[in-house]
């Protein structure tokens, strides 16, 4: 009983503590000089509570009927792990922001918005009811708007926030529609009741429509094509905001797709939509990223590509791989954004060194070797036979790890580079199999037809990448289109401003032009 009470409190406390920082804003109870210290102290306690919940859950193997929080709030094993990850990233980003924003006038608003985002994310991770999910996701977007518009004199930041607001409102409508259709069919808004209803038979028309609306809402919130442009233009916001967005907030769509796996398993139309948008986003963003020079812009396009791959994995029923991808992407993007300034210094020191393309032999052999390694590992250690296309898809995705740089041979390191690539490939495959075996409540439901379609698209993408590495001039005719993102965002921007015109974006652009030197 005491363990049950302890886990219940430690599960709720991270969100409550972060919301406490939000409550300090209207009353100005804490001077600005101490507000960062208060935030860091409460964030550290919230992180300790999240870790305590994870440890207690793992060591005690709490059964679903003994869940620490019942009713509309009920954590899942993956949600508990992500709560630790989110709070850890929030604490690190907060410490970075306290130094990065020294001297800025909007720090109190920034601290409040950052705490609001973290509190809303914790609520979303606990959601076990449609109303909680809709409210939490809307609060995440509302709090994030203040961070995106931290510099109100930057027109592209305002434009990005406006485009995101339109996508969020459309996603809210779709999510409400999904909730209404499911509620009418099941008779309850509880996810637990929805899973129990799904176990009794096939999906009705109402639930098929609900699943389709839910998937479209996730696509809009996850910044996939064609509404990905705001994620690129939001680079005008402070760097720690970019780290929070790319490492945490934008990944919430992947978590919800994994959370709703029992729902998506039987909704083929919804899975086809995920496949189409995910594969399209990954291919387009992968090609565009190769033509960009700006560090933050390349990272933003990389996030679009990674979100596409994550959604693609969920459409194929590879939820274990998607969960591993989610955690790895969060940690990686937080690190690269917070250390982006070091990349500039590294580029300055190595300005005279011109990187060469990967060795042609490695481009040809990498996919074959990667697929073979993944295939033999899963055959040796998996408890069940995986579909053959699973090994091919995963091997194709990870084959760039085996690319070898010719210049490394001058230093006698080419063998170490190859060995490190093989070890990383084995480690990722092993981690996926281990995660699948652990009791995280994630059940893979591979679909062979969708897997072959995805495999075809990934093969074409790999061929394009290989051609660009070996013969950059071969695709020269597409370079301008690729650099412009194939003009997809321009079409969405014009449509967005036509549907929901706003004067303050236009005024900001006019002010910017007036201030520009003639």
Structure description:
The protein has helices at residues 2-27, 32-60, 77-100, 107-126, 130-148, 155-186, 191-198, 205-221, 229-233, 239-247, 252-259, 261-264, 268-289, 295-315, 319-338, 340-349, 360-381, 388-398, 414-437, 448-470, 479-483, 488-499, 503-515. The chain has three domains: 1-126, no CATH class; 146-340 and 484-518, no CATH class; 357-479. The chain contains 23 helices and no strands. It starts with a helix and ends with a helix. It is globular and about 65 Å long.
Summarize this, please?
The chain is an all-alpha fold and 518 residues long. The chain is 74% helix and 0% strand.
List the helices and strands and how they pair.
Elements: H1 2-27, H2 32-60, H3 77-100, H4 107-126, H5 130-148, H6 155-186, H7 191-198, H8 205-221, H9 229-233, H10 239-247, H11 252-259, H12 261-264, H13 268-289, H14 295-315, H15 319-338, H16 340-349, H17 360-381, H18 388-398, H19 414-437, H20 448-470, H21 479-483, H22 488-499, H23 503-515
Helix pairs in contact: 1-2, 1-4, 2-3, 2-4, 3-4, 3-10, 3-15, 4-5, 5-6, 6-8, 6-23, 8-11, 8-13, 10-15, 11-14, 11-15, 13-14, 13-20, 14-15, 17-18, 17-19, 18-20
Number of strands: 0
Oligomer: single chain
Main structural class: mainly alpha
Structure annotation, total helices: 23
Percent range for helical residues? over 70%
Question: Which key phrases capture this entry?
Answer:
23 helices; mainly alpha; 518 residues
């Amino acid at each position: 009983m005491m363990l049950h009470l302890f886990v219940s409190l430690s599960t709720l406390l991270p969100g409550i503590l972060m919301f406490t920082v939000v409550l300090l804003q209207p009353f100005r109870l804490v001077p600005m000089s101490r507000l960062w210290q208060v935030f860091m102290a409460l964030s550290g306690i919230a992180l300790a509570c999240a870790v305590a919940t994870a440890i207690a859950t793992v060591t005690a193997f709490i059964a679903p009927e003994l869940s620490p929080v019942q009713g509309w709030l009920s954590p899942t094993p993956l949600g508990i792990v992500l709560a630790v990850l989110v709070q850890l990233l929030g604490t690190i980003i907060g410490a970075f922001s306290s130094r990065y924003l020294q001297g800025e006038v909007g720090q109190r608003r920034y601290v409040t918005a950052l705490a609001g985002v973290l509190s809303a994310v914790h609520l979303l991770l606990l959601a076990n009811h449609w109303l909680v999910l809709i409210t939490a996701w809307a609060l995440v977007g509302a709090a994030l708007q203040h961070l995106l518009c931290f510099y109100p004199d930057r027109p592209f930041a305002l434009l990005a926030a406006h485009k995101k607001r339109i996508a969020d409102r459309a996603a809210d409508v779709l999510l409400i529609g999904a909730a209404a259709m499911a509620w009418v069919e099941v008779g309850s808004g509880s996810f637990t009741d929805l899973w129990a209803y799904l176990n009794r038979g096939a999906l009705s028309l109402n639930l098929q429509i609900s699943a389709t609306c839910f998937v479209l809402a996730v696509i809009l919130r996850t910044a996939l094509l064609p509404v990905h442009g705001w994620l690129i233009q939001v680079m005008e916001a402070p760097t720690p905001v970019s780290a929070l967005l790319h490492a945490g907030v934008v990944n919430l769509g992947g978590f919800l797709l994994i959370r709703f796996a029992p729902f998506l398993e039987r909704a083929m139309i919804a899975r086809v939509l995920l496949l189409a948008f995910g594969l399209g986003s990954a291919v387009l963003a992968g090609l565009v990223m190769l033509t960009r020079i700006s560090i933050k812009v390349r990272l933003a396009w990389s996030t679009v590509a990674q979100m596409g791959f994550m959604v693609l994995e969920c459409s194929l029923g590879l939820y274990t791989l998607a969960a591993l991808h989610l955690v790895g992407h969060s940690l990686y993007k937080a690190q690269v954004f917070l250390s982006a300034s070091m990349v500039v210094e590294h580029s300055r020191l190595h300005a005279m060194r011109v990187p060469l393309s990967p060795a042609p032999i490695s481009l040809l052999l990498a996919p074959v070797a990667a697929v073979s390694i993944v295939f033999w590992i899963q055959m040796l250690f998996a408890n069940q036979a995986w579909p053959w296309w699973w090994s091919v898809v995963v091997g194709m995705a990870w084959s760039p790890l085996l690319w070898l740089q010719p210049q490394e041979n001058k230093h006698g390191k080419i063998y170490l580079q190859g060995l490190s690539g093989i070890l990383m490939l084995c480690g990722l495959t092993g981690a996926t199999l281990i995660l699948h075996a652990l009791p995280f409540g994630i059940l893979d439901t591979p679909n062979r037809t969708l897997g072959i379609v995805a495999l075809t698209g990934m093969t074409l993408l790999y061929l394009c990448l290989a051609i660009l590495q070996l013969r950059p001039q071969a695709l020269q005719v597409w370079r301008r289109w690729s650099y412009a993102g194939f003009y997809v965002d321009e079409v969405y921007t014009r449509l967005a401003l036509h549907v929901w015109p706003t004067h303050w974006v236009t005024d900001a652009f006019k002010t910017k032009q007036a201030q520009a030197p003639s």
